[in-house]
Task: inverse folding
């Protein structure tokens, strides 16, 4: 696997990479060393002997030549980090006990109306257990002074909590009864000037995701009047444990693994990780997939973001069957920003613009015509308003037209522009916050504005403050949300479900400006941002809500409850259908009462991995059980994993027939009769379920059935569903057949 770069799954972090590049690292000494992760499966019983094992392996492989273990994982799984060249890495990969060896790459990070929008009002029924649930938030840290994390009236942490808090007096960081633990991870010690070497969040992303999952209710908040209302997390009584793994330049594999190793043994119940990117060539070459497997083994559910690389096919970045992958969809809030040109025509664009130019007009210029000829850039760059390409003398005091939708506004703001109008062919279904008055257009209206500039001797314009309007089509999956199918097992539908991830208002670090652009001096304690990073913690909060009612449910059971109760979404708006939204739109309230569960345990995932082609010898390292074998697994396919959805990838124009074996567990009324309702567009494909009635006589009872899909497919994708209905619960699974 190539060491990819993990980034947080939200938009503005792309800018952070630029910020980091602009800042020189404090230490460059380590820049050329290449560290690798040597992953060795499940933990050994004895931590001390694990450390010895790691050193002796290096001795065996490389003799007395001193190679040191940079970081050891031994609490929850087994592995270590070491500097190697490619040849040495191959040698290690061939050693006994080694599951995989891969470079320590970087990943990227991929309010509060959103809960009400999902039909989850503030006054829902709550379980007393809610304050025992611990959500581990893997992100950029936290801003503990935020009102979202005030611990007034909150009891001390539950006794199962074994984690710790990295208190630091110089940055005044402490935990409390809401934030019960916090640690930072940066094994190579390379910090950037904008990084705070503390769990304290200098960015805002981690503060935002933590408050979305489990923040208190805070009344009367808004961003300059936008999104005004109560900001709250899904489980305001639950506890937050902070694992800071992301820094100005992204999130390193070694640190992601170290944080999981701790979190699992610290006693967290749910892990929320809005991070991804990097390789897709195997479940055990991806640190999040590896770590989520061990989390599952230990009863901990991992919720991850699908990524922001959509809408292309198979752009999804977290897709292991033992974790949940979350797409991002809209809520009924959007922003409209009017621009009035000098000829009094008015165009309606989008942006979150809180600046008020008070109807005053300013001269306009097209970026292409404002090239700084000594900057080394071409007019193509200046048409995009790239940073440093614009001539300050030409742009100062003007509104500049730029050929970009997702530009940051940094170029115009540094050149002294008063405002920015953008045009692009990108889908205008979401927008950012900019450091100057901005409105964004598609090529139609943007083209008219261009023509006005082109044909007018002294073009002028003004930009109005945005208006918040109802998006009556919501919810639909936003264009940036990464799409399936699953690149490794296409028959396991990914993403699993969708949740609000556009224009989410939540807590923020008041040392990073709201637009995240230097020079913007608007520092606020709440901010509106977008990304699958924002949808992920909605599902984490909902998972914690389910857990608070059903503390003994397995990770797969909670996943099943969230997926089978999701509200169906429309393939007429999202043509990629389930590959955009999975089982549908999160419905937290219903998820606590699913009726039936599609449960799975470690052995089921091992059988799945056998069928996926992994060797028994390899899987024994994961289970630490020499009796693990793949014998008998050939009686089924990967489709027989007891997953709460049905995916079938087939070759074009060939006749196919596939059966799916499933077992459901009754968690509703003891006496229940469930009838199967199959809905599938007729055509070349036939679907049947056998038996089509399930008669339960007790809670916890398990009954099995089989779904058979056969025929030929003319279209590239057909979707339908199987709903088990007892008159009280509708247990829904999507069925997707695709080429
Ligand atoms: C340090 O944190 C405490 C607790 O949050 C707060 O009361 C105090 O004002 C902070 N001090 C400074 C100097 O920020
Ligand atoms: C803004 O100015 C224009 C032109 O002077 C005028 O027609 C319009 O009514 C003004 N709009 C507002 C909202 O004041
Ligand atoms: C043009 O770019 C050069 C090099 O970056 C810079 O020094 C100069 O100030 C810029 N001039 C204007 C007018 O923006
Ligand atoms: C208007 O567009 C034409 C054709 O693209 C170009 O040649 C001309 O320079 C433009 N005029 C101005 C004022 O931008
Ligand atoms: C937005 O419009 C939808 C559909 O017309 C409606 O159901 C919803 O209540 C509206 N939301 C708000 C906040 O007005
Ligand atoms: C499992 O097999 C390995 C390698 O053959 C051996 O070293 C180990 O002792 C065995 N473990 C158990 C518990 O039998
Ligand atoms: C396949 O065989 C194994 C071992 O004999 C058995 O436990 C399992 O239930 C079978 N699976 C299916 C799908 O028939």
Result:
């Amino acid at each position: 696997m190539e060491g990819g770069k993990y980034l947080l799954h939200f938009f503005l972090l792309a800018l952070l990479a630029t910020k980091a590049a602009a800042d020189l690292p404090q230490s460059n000494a380590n820049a050329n060393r290449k560290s690798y992760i040597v992953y060795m499966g499940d933990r050994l019983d004895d931590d001390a002997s694990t450390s010895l094992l790691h050193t002796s392996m290096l001795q065996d492989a490389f003799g007395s030549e001193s190679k040191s273990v940079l970081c050891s994982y031994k609490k929850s799984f087994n592995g270590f980090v070491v500097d190697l060249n490619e040849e040495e890495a191959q040698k290690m990969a061939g050693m006994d006990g080694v599951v995989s060896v891969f470079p320590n790459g970087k990943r990227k990070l991929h309010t509060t109306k959103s809960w009400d929008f999902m039909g989850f009002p503030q006054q829902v029924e709550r379980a007393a257990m809610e304050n025992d649930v611990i959500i581990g938030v893997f992100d950029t840290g936290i801003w503990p002074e935020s009102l979202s994390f005030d611990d007034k009236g909150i009891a001390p942490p539950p006794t199962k909590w074994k984690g710790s808090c990295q208190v630091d007096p110089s940055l005044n960081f402490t935990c409390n009864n809401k934030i019960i633990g916090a640690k930072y991870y940066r094994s190579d010690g390379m910090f950037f000037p904008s990084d705070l070497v503390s769990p304290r969040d200098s960015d805002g992303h981690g503060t935002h995701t933590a408050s979305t999952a489990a923040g208190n209710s805070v009344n009367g908040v808004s961003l300059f009047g936008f999104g005004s209302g109560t900001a709250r997390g899904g489980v305001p009584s639950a506890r937050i444990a902070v694992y800071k793994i992301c820094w100005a330049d992204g999130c390193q594999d070694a640190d992601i693994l170290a944080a999981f190793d701790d979190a699992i043994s610290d006693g967290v119940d749910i892990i929320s990780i809005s991070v991804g990117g990097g390789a897709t060539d195997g479940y055990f070459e991806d640190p999040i997939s590896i770590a989520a497997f061990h989390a599952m083994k230990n009863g901990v559910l991992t919720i991850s973001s699908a990524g922001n690389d959509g809408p292309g096919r198979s752009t999804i970045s977290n897709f292991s069957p033992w974790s949940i992958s979350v797409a991002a969809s809209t809520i009924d809030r959007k922003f409209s920003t009017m621009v009035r040109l000098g000829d009094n025509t008015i165009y309606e664009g989008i942006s979150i613009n809180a600046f008020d130019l008070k109807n005053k007009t300013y001269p306009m210029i097209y970026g292409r015509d404002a090239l700084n000829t000594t900057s080394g850039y071409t007019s193509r760059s200046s048409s995009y308003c790239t940073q440093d390409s614009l001539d300050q003398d030409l742009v100062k005091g003007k509104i500049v037209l730029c050929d970009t939708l997702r530009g940051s506004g940094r170029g115009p703001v540094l050149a002294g522009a008063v405002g920015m109008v953008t045009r692009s062919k990108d889908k205008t279904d979401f927008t950012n916050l900019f450091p100057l008055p901005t409105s964004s257009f598609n090529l139609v209206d943007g083209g008219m504005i261009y023509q006005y500039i082109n044909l007018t001797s002294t073009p002028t314009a003004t930009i109005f403050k945005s208006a918040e309007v109802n998006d009556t089509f919501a919810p639909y999956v936003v264009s940036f949300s990464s799409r399936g199918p699953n690149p490794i097992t296409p028959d396991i539908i990914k993403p699993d479900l969708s949740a609000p991830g556009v224009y989410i208002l939540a807590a923020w670090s008041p040392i990073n400006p709201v637009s995240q652009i230097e020079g913007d001096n608007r520092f606020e304690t709440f901010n509106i941002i977008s990304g699958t990073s924002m949808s992920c913690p909605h599902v984490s909060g909902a998972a914690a809500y389910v857990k608070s009612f059903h503390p003994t449910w397995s990770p797969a059971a909670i996943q099943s409850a969230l997926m089978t109760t999701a509200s169906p979404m429309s393939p007429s708006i999202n043509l990629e259908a389930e590959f955009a939204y999975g089982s549908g739109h999160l419905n937290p309230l219903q998820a606590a009462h699913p009726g039936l569960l599609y449960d799975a345990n470690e052995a089921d995932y091992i059988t799945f991995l056998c069928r996926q082609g992994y060797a028994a010898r390899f899987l024994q390292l994961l289970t630490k059980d020499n009796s693990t074998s793949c014998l008998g697994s050939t009686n089924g396919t990967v489709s027989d994993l007891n997953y709460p959805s049905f995916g079938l990838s087939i070759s074009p124009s060939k006749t196919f027939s596939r059966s799916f074996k499933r077992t459901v567990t009754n968690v509703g009324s003891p006496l229940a009769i469930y009838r199967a309702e199959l809905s599938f567009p007729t055509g070349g494909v036939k679907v049947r379920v056998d038996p089509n009635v399930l008669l339960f006589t007790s809670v916890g009872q398990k009954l099995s059935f089989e779904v058979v899909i056969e025929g030929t497919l003319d279209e590239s994708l057909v979707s339908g569903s199987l709903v088990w209905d007892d008159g009280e619960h509708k247990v829904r699974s999507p069925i997707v057949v695709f080429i």
Observations:
- The first helix runs from residue 13 to 22.
- The first strand starts at residue 7 and ends at 9.
- The chain has 17 helices and 37 strands.
- Residues 145, 172, 174 surround 2-acetamido-2-deoxy-beta-D-glucopyranose (ligand 1) (CB under 6 Å).
